[in-house]
Amino acid sequence: MPRSVNSVASRARRKKILKQAKGFFGRRKNVWTIAKNAVEKAMQYSYRDRRVKKRNFRALWISRINAGARINGMSYSQLMGKIKSNKIDLNRKVLADLAMNHPNAFKAIVDKVK
Length: 114
Prior knowledge:
The chain is mostly helical.
C-alpha cells in the first residue's frame, strides 16, 4: 500500500507561515525553510517584548515624574513616599501625564503633599 501524505494540510501549514512572514526582507519572506526560522524568532521576540514594553513604559513614567518633581523642589522618591502616606491613589501613568501635559495640576498635587 502506498504511503499517504496529507498534502492539503502540509500546504496550509506552509501558507500560514509564509503569510506571517509577509513584509520580511529577501528570502525570509518566500523561502519556506528560511521563513519558518524567521517567523519562529519573530514570535519569540514578540512574546518577550510584550513584557519588556511594560518595563520601558514604567521607566519612562518614573523619569517624567522625577523631572516634574524636581521642578517643584522634590525628588521622585520623596514625592512618591508622601503621595503614598497621604493616601493619594494616582498611579505613575496618570502622574506622568499630569507632569507632562498639565504642570499646574501636578504642582497642586506636589503642594498638597509638601
